[in-house]
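Shift notes (night). Ran ATP-NAD/AcoX kinase while the centrifuge was going.
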Amino acid sequence: MSSLPTFTLGFVINPLAGVGGEAGFKGSDAPEIQASAASGHLPLRAFERAHQFLQGLQPIANKLRIVTVPASMGADAVARAGLQAEVIDFPVPSVTSAKDTQAGVLALCAAKLDLLVFVGGDGTARDVCSVVGCESPQPQLAIGVPSGVKMHSGVYGIHPTATAQVVCGMVAGELTAVHEQEVRDIDEAAFRQGIVRSRYYGSMRVPSAAEFVQHVKQGGVEVEELVLLDIANEIKERLEAQFDDLGEEQVLTIFAPGSTTQFVQQELGLPSTLLGVDVTLGLEPLAQDVNANQLAQLIDEHRQRCGASAQVNLVLTAIGGQGHLLGRGNQQLRADILQKIGREHLWPIATKAKLKALEGRPLILDTGNSALNRQWSGLFSVVTGYQDNILYRAEGA
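Came back to this:
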């Protein structure tokens, strides 16, 4: 088993971001300001900010797969930093626009990114959010390198090196929290008149350095029962949201073995089998301690009954100390069953203390199917509390 698989980072620059700042224009969105920059009358700040960020990735360069856009929208900056990148086939005009940013981001996301990094300001954040924000058909984990004049959105590192440090931490296996952050922008014309009109444009899933402050005693040790209660409340809220959207009869939830999942079941008022797989329909018990064949049949029957609206969730936890997410203690979850469920419908749960005890080692996927192990390797969003999720890497055996 390799120490860590390759981390795929998508990288895109808005070359015109921030060009109006040095000249005191209080923004860069106006066409006349962008034309002035394109003609060489204003310095292109984004290129330098991108270089600072990319230099911060040098310590992890051998663990990164960088995918970027040609020329001024990414590849030129990556080459200047001495890093290697895969450059997608994408037409970059001499003067780029919001549509180019949007199209470039969508093209990058086809590479199945672990993280998208974009260089720009609030206008760029709006463009990115419009195609990969939380409400879009293809939400993408993303973070910005600040290069704009107006920086009201919460999707950026505090400076380019800070953004690089977040990426380095993710690649190193450090616990990384994920938060939905607002994308906001202001009316530039009003801003030039001294009037601040900020408008909300959506939210994005953004990584940040994990904080270990919730439910903590002196010495930094989590109070486990309180954390487990928070995890149970998060699972309950997720299920209730699905019930509201689809109806309880459409939602089949599978609880894998383990004391953590058993605690959640008990808090939901459900019977539980410590070492077995239990299944619920809505919040009513459907079957307990099922084997693989029974589980496959329950999923198939649910899909036949509910059709396209059928929802199947899998709540599971890792084995403490060993880090096996699949293949140890939950062999009922065969590879074909996991494929029926889908990676995106896995809800891994764990305390931060359990993840921290792995000391950066990845969670292990040992499904018995090497192709599936490889396909599912990568970052998982692990529920570690109420509205608290940590990105953690899993690796196929």
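The first strand starts at residue 7 and ends at 13. The chain is about 35% helix and 25% strand.
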